Automatic annotation (TrEMBL):
InterPro entries: Epimerase_deHydtase, GDP_fucose/colitose_synth, NAD(P)-bd_dom_sf. Residues 9-229 form the NAD-dependent epimerase/dehydratase domain. This is GDP-L-fucose synthase. One of its GO terms (molecular function) is GDP-L-fucose synthase activity. It holds the Pfam family Epimerase. It comes from Pseudomonas saponiphila. The gene is fcl.
Amino acid sequence: MSYKLQEKILVLGCHGMVGSAIVRELSRKGYENVLAVGRSEVDLSCQREVGDFFAEHRVDQVYLAAAKVGGIQANNNYPAEFIYQNLLIQTNVINAAHMNNVQKLLFLGSSCIYPKHADQPMREEALLTGLLEPTNEPYAIAKIAGIKLCESFNRQYGRDYRSVMPTNLYGPLDNYHHENSHVIPALLRRFHEVVAQGGDEVVIWGSGKPMREFLHVDDMASASVHIQELSLEEYQANTEPMLSHINVGTGVDCTIRELAETLAKVVGFKGEIKFDHTKPDGTPRKLMDVSKLRKMGWQAKIGLEDGLRDAYRWFIENEKNLRL
């Protein structure tokens, strides 16, 4: 391991689900000088503001967890915003880090970078080997650009900029908006509302057969810090030279039906779960190959049911303050 607890660490996107989890993990591990920054402190889409911020604060390393994110519907409805805003954030931050001699940076991407029909489980080498899923292609291209930006600074300037590609995340501070949320918060909220209203039926799009992998955000934060703590030699021993991205997941998936049944158990729904077969299923399976991450000495610890209980506990405690 090559890290110092006294280093000044900048976490961007600290008010989001992933960024806040990284701040918690750094605190848990004893890091003493964490600068947690959100949208109100600096506009990451403004090159001048970002450059001035880096010049003033002189950090040792960066976790870039800030991004414009959303579910399938949001990606489909606002493709221009998703590609434009993410390209701005990534480009401004990564370039400003380099210009201010920040040697270490961790960029957070997404599993949607891989081709729609990539072999399962998806390996890091599958990047750019096929067409992307059309509904979130603009977002995926932005994330691919972030990976390649990191790789390019590594190649040309000898930087140590790494990227982690998480599977589907969930947990505290998730987005429960009725249009823009991902599958777990969307279903969790739906089960909760049906129970509260005394209903006895929940209808879910599709057949319930597609398989998905889910990772609790605290596990994601743990993996991110673990990867960042590795020496360059330890990191490159399990990846290709100049290849900056590593998959982060559990290596285990479940069907949407199994997910729904587990959520029903967690929420206390006793009624009938129905599937609307007239609605699309989407990709049959999305599972990450996490063999490289395991060789680096990390694997997920939070099981799905335990993680969902934690997510539901947070939802109940914060429901009155959420944008639903």
